[in-house]
Amino acid sequence: MQSGRLKIYKRPLFKKKLRLSIILLIMVALIYSIYWFFHANLIEDKFRKFSSSIGDWAIYLSFESINISGFPYSFSVNLINPILTFGLSNGPNRNEKSLELTNNLISVKISPWNYRIYNINFGEKHNFDFFNNNKHSSFRGITEKFNINLVFDHIFDTFELDFDIAKLKFQTKNLVTLFSAKNLILSVSEQNKQPAPNDNGEIKGNYNLFIRSEGFAISEMFNLPESQVIELISAKIKIFGYLNTPINAKNIEYWRENGGIIEIEEFEIVDAKFKSTLNGTVSLDNNLQILAAFVAEVEGLPFVIKSLYDNSRISAGIAEKLNFLLDLISKTSPNGARKNSFPITIQDRELFIGRTPLVELPTISW
């Protein structure tokens, strides 16, 4: 009998706990819904404010309309017919140097619990317009995938920006393909910020840049002396020093005077018959022209010389002399190919191979 009474007393208690749990779940769902829709409005407001001004990186954004979906798992910000303009200083003025990217859709995905990470997805078709002092050039880009992942660290004020692009075609407005790539990965990050040398509270940043492209095909219209399809292009670059925007003579000179330097840890080009690796440093001289020193290691130079001769870039006599010199200075790599290693320098707008001046470079106007 006693056990029977216990069962009778437990039933109302169980129902009470169940009712309380349901009420709590409803309250949590209601509070979260209020939280989600409140922050969705804040996000929309921020995008609209950003579209009416220009940020620190001289980027101007406009769009036809905006909507936010993804409830309850994420914020998916959809910008309809957006236009991104890069390189502006005070509004969309086409008389200045700028790049305009037009798309039918940009989708930005944000986690409700982590505002540090932004996943950005572009549509498949892109229009690129370059403006330079009233000169206008139009191009068209087609991709199967165009994703951008952006991570902010608000504590240290650093960032990481990753581009992941698949099956890229870059064409003229007449649909002539200039180049294409099976895969293209670009990663930019800013790390290890430190006070600038002038100790006025400014910050000096170091930037890491990584580029990797597979199956990069170049149009035959360029008539290059090497093969038209490059299996791999890879680069690891470090940029030291804080660089203000926009990129102009004043900001470039400030960067140079405060220890600005570019370190190329690795630059590699590989195709079926040619392989080249390069590393070195790049800086600027007092005239803001390139000052650089590299060490290059190349396999397949005989193929390049033959291509230059076949395309009437060099005479038969010069080709014969170059091949003779290569025989004298070449080493044999483990795979049996001839390998050449030599220094490359740039100084006073001249490019040197060893101590021999090869070509005069044009003046850079910042």
Task: Provide keyphrases for this structure.
366 residues; 23% helix; 21-stranded antiparallel sheet; alpha+beta; 4 helices
How many helices? The count is 4
What structural class do the secondary elements suggest?
alpha+beta
Number of DSSP strand runs: 21
Helix content: 10-25%
Oligomeric form: single chain
| Main β-sheet description | 21 strands, antiparallel
State the shape.
elongated
The averaged pLDDT comes out at: 81
Query: Mind telling me the C-alpha Rg?
Result: 29 Å
Order of helices and strands: HEEEEEEEEEEEEEEHEEEHHEEEE
Contiguous uncertain segments of 5+ residues: 198-203
Strand content bin: over 45%
- Euclidean distance between termini CA atoms: 96 Å
Write up what this structure looks like.
The chain is α+β, with helices and mostly antiparallel strands and 366 residues long. The chain has four helices and 21 strands. It has a 21-stranded antiparallel sheet that branches. Helix 3 (301-310) packs antiparallel against helix 4 (316-329). The N and C termini lie far apart (96 Å).
